[in-house]
Amino acid sequence: MAHDHDTHAPHHHDHSDIDWSGMAAHLETQAELFTPLYERALAWLGHKQTEPGLVVDAGSGPGVLSCLLAEAFPGARVVAVDGAEPLLERARARAERLGVADRFGTLTGELPGVLDDLDYPVDLLWASRSLHHLGDQRAGIAAFASRLARGGTLALMEGGLPARFLPRDIGIGRPGLQARLDALEEEWFANMRADLPGSVSETEDWPALMASAGLRHTGTRSFMLDLPAPTTDRARAYIAGWLGRLRDGFGERLDPDDRHTLDRLLDPADTASVHQRADVFVLAVHTVHTAVRTG
User: Fold this and answer.
1) What is the pLDDT at residue 3?
2) Distance, CA of 236 to CA of 208 (rounded, Å)
């Protein structure tokens, strides 16, 4: 199971149909675009867990964040864990390109059980938006906690704010398009969670869930990505990909006027599209929660 670190955009009708390996290019592009946010989060984390020996990226996808972890903690061995071997192949290739392959490994299998295959306890376990793909999140956190060394840190990136790319009134269609898309995404996410094997409804109080696993909460902080307008071609391509997946994923659930607006936003030949308009930006906030194993 690979995990989309930054979006809940629907790709198929249910979670089991998601082809994470087929999304490799998107996952890499997305994580690379959000690298400034991740670097700030990891710098903050570095003050909480100094000089870890083993760092695990649980739900690593193609390994962009895994390699950032290797750079942030130069004395650590980093293991990228994912269920999609093609994505881990990309992670290994990235580690080679960046010169960290000598202390970089991968582990293929489904979370959280695959963590039992680790050779020794973990000093820092990073889970970036992978936990919410487990049916029983409380049990998932308990499994993560059980793999920590004494004094080891669990860092969960969950929550934050929906990303914004456009002004409220974009001059075409009804104002408030992204707010309406947010509502559809929330509905999709709730259905995705309900359809997961062993799904358990859980209040998303991450510090409390960490405490229930015997961990001591050590901090919560949010980190912002701010790529103001006029933004880069790379950001425009990312935004177009995001909006395209929403248009295709929501299908008939979209208001017809909103679908027409999305069609215009995605048409490179239209001066109102995200490919041409000057007011496109990326503004996103992700939240990280940390807790330590004391016993």
Assistant:
1) 38
2) 38
